[in-house]
Amino acid sequence: MNDFLKVVLVGLPGSGKSTFGRQLATALDFPYYDLDQLIEKKFQMKIPDIFNDFGEGRFREWETETLIEVMSSQESLVLASGGGCPCFNDNMDIINKQGASVYLDVPLEEISERLSLPKLQHRPMFKDLGHGEITLKLKSLLADREFYYDQAKIKLSGGDFSTELLMSELIKLIKN
Ligand SMILES: Nc1ncnc2c1ncn2[C@@H]1O[C@H](COP(=O)(O)OP(=O)(O)O)[C@@H](O)[C@H]1O
Ligand SMILES: O=C(O)C1=C[C@@H](OP(=O)(O)O)[C@@H](O)[C@H](O)C1
Ligand SMILES: [Mg+2]
Question: Which positions in this protein are listed as binding ATP (predicted)?
């Protein structure tokens, strides 16, 4: 890690990376970035349209390209990554080299409740799935992804995270 503190949140879709990321950035008074939003801005396309028009492979290329840019910027920041980000193209190594990674480890049932709400049905991976199918999909994603998420430097388990707790974990990490 260099002189800047880059806090990068990782975890399954619906674990609260974007929501908690914003809260944490406010508490730390750091700029907040959402990797999906940076991709949409850079390539002028919505995430579901990238998946539909070009496929996941192209999305993962663009995701890594955007991640490298934000991780090499000369500033402290909070970054909410996308759920799949740590699991492709050495992205977890890129994150850990420049940043303080934090895994939001939320019970699958809780995430499933959140993602079943109609307003969240724009997420390409969960489109048109019912509650039971969402839980199964999350289980299968976690089986594939936990190996990468577990490489995070800090792990927060539960549903509701406190910015104070994470800040004290970050201080411990920096001191070590
Ligand atoms: N701690 C929480 N308690 C209840 N709902 C939450 C919590 N954190 C996030 N949510 C809700 O869950 C959904 C997914 O959150 P989001 O931050 O977009 O997750 P991610 O970025 O990890 O996919 C959103 O509708 C958000 O309002
Ligand atoms: O888990 C994934 O592979 C994805 C998660 C999404 O981000 P969120 O985790 O913020 O939903 C987004 O990057 C894309 O739809 C792919
Ligand atoms: Mg998000």
Answer: 14-19, 123
**Which of 150, 145, 28 has the alpha carbon at shortest distance from 101?**
150
Q: Which of 54, 60, 86, 81 lies closest to 70 in space, CA to CA?
A: 81
Q: What is the pLDDT of residues 101-125, one digit of tens each?
A: 999 999 999 999 988 876 655 677 8
Domain that holds residue 21: 6-175
Asked if residue 86 belongs to a domain, the reply is yes
Question: For 19-78, how does the pLDDT look when each residue is reduced to its tens digit (9 = 90+)?
Answer: 999 999 999 999 999 999 999 999 999 999 999 999 999 999 999 999 999 999 999 999
CATH code of residue 11: 3.40.50.300
> How many domains, the chain?
1
CB atoms closer than 10 angstroms to residue 14: 25
**Candidates 12, 20, 109, 114: which one to mutate for ligand 1, based on the most atoms within 8 Å of Cβ?**
114
Is 83 annotated as belonging to a binding site? yes
Instruction: Say if 97 falls within a structural domain.
Output: yes
